[in-house]
Write a structure and sequence with these properties.
The protein is mainly alpha-helical and 354 residues long. It is built from 14 helices and 4 strands. Strand 3 and strand 4 form a beta hairpin. Helix 1 packs across helix 9.
Length: 354
């Protein structure tokens, strides 16, 4: 497959795990600094390759010391280093590399006459390559994550918001790309604001000041393959990452179920405790607490004794003349061996007031 076949799509994916590597963020920043012109191409001019080469050389020279500290000779880095690095990372960066044929098809490299004829381009493998070369971790479940996107049925006027942010009339053919670019810069606005100096073009965006980001932010979301409310179907996902996603989905369901069971256990606990307390209280078992029922139970024998004594006293007051005035004088004489007599007198008061 030739690299100049425009009918063949090269799928580009966001890297929401590392904003500095995200091509969608890079594109959004480019449009913010260089507003689009409906009459021009996305990258205007006739010598994009030469302009990029010169700019890359300028950056390497300006930061040559930092590059050398990484053990790399700045002179060994060129335009083709990006293709070499991307292809090497995709092929050998992990033990779960995309098919080599899909890499050759994406890069426009020949595989030999027979292979070029019989191994054709297919979107599924190219999507996998697109996620890998975006820098996503192929051994992580988040590999199946979506880019930031604007949720369906949003109440905002999306066209006017895009025009307001990018200060340009975005061509209709770019509108899908612009939606993701807007969602990305809004979603990562805090990270982006901290990456640039106070006087940079990015740091002085008017749309931050005008509050556009705060209006769009509630409509921006991200989702993963295991989410139940995923509005974007994930593509380019290899089988092992699908297994990772299924595990995450099962784990999320288990956590939700565990939370429901825990709440139900708490409700049952309160119901059981309340039932036990009610049953004990009905049986006048206080468990060491002075409940009204327990106090009544403790006082009941005393009340019966008081009533009995009162009844006996009433009987004595009416039958014994010695107690008509409420005083009973009683005397006893005890003889001792020495002939002396001891008198013991008992004064009994039976409750009458005098």
């Amino acid at each position: 497959m030739s690299g100049f076949e425009e009918s063949v799509k090269r799928h580009v994916y966001a890297n929401s795990m590392d904003v500095s590597l995200c091509p969608i963020i890079s594109l959004a920043l480019y449009l913010l600094v260089f507003p689009a012109n409906a009459n021009e191409k996305l990258f205007p001019g006739a010598s994009q390759y030469d302009r990029f080469r010169k700019r890359l050389a300028f950056i390497l020279e300006a930061h040559g010391e930092e590059v050398r500290l990484m053990g790399i000779d700045p002179g060994s880095i060129g335009v083709h280093s990006i293709r070499k690095g991307g292809a090497t990372f995709a092929c050998s960066g992990s033990t779960a590399a995309p098919p080599l044929a899909s890499l050759c098809n994406r890069a426009g490299w020949t595989m030999g006459k027979a292979k070029d004829v019989y191994i054709r381009y297919e979107a599924a493998a190219d999507r996998y390559v697109g996620r890998v070369v975006a820098g996503l971790d192929v051994l992580c479940a988040e590999f199946a994550g979506s880019p930031p996107y604007i949720a369906e049925h949003s109440s905002i006027d999306l066209s006017s918001m895009i025009a307001n942010v990018f200060a340009a009339e975005i061509p209709l053919a770019w509108m899908g790309m612009a939606r993701f670019a807007l969602a990305s810069v809004v979603y990562y606005r805090k990270e982006l604001a901290g990456c640039f100096g106070q006087g940079s073009a990015v740091a002085t965006w008017g749309w931050f000041v005008r509050g556009v980001a705060e209006l769009v932010a509630p409509c921006v979301k991200r989702s993963f393959a295991w989410d139940s409310d995923n509005e974007i179907e994930p593509t380019g996902i290899p089988p092992h990452v699908i297994a990772f996603a299924d595990q995450r989905k099962i784990l999320a369901e288990l956590r939700a179920t565990a939370a429901e069971h825990l709440e139900e256990m708490r409700r049952l606990e309160h119901a059981v405790v309340a039932g036990i307390v009610a049953e004990l209280d009905s049986r006048h078992v206080g468990g060491g607490e002075l409940t009204l029922a327990r106090i009544q139970t403790l006082l009941e024998p005393i009340q019966k004794k008081i009533q009995l004594l009162h009844s006996e006293l009433q009987t004595q007051n009416t039958s014994d003349p010695r107690t008509r005035h409420g005083v009973e004088l009683g005397g006893t004489h005890t003889s001792r061996t020495d002939g002396a007599t001891t008198g013991t007198w008992t004064l009994l008061f039976w409750g009458h007031k005098h």
